[in-house]
Design a protein that fits this description.
The chain contains 7 helices and 3 strands. It is mostly helical. It has one domain: Arc Repressor Mutant, subunit A (Orthogonal Bundle). Strands 1-3-2 form a 3-stranded antiparallel β-sheet. α1 packs antiparallel against α6. The radius of gyration is 19 Å and the shape is globular.
Length: 147
Amino acid sequence: MCDMAEITSPPLSEQLCFDLYAASRAVTNAYRPALAELGLTYPQYLVLIVLWDEGTSSVGTIADSLRLDHGTLTPLLQRMQDGGLVTRRRATDDERVVEVSLTERGLDLRRHADRIQCDMKALLKLGDVEFTELQSILRRITSNVSR
């Protein structure tokens, strides 16, 4: 627990927020070469993962899954549609809902996903137990702070 009687400004080396930020940037940057070979950005890759797992999804569902707002996601999906990865169309039962589907090209990229995941796991140099523990802690942090 923090002692508020001693108000100090901890150095950067003691700031959890910076460690999380630096780790996130480092991991995201590690994905860049593999994704660049496929013509993808990291956010586009995340959208593809959601669609590979869920199939056709609404923009709202994708936004919720990726914890992105519609204003960020909409231009991303537009670029993906322009690149031939997805199609967007209004739902027939509710025209307010935009559904996103994978094209053949978007589906075909899935064959690279296992290699990318394995390469990233190897790069992290964590055992299976450490990897699972880290994921669990990160998810708990996200849940606790998102409340």
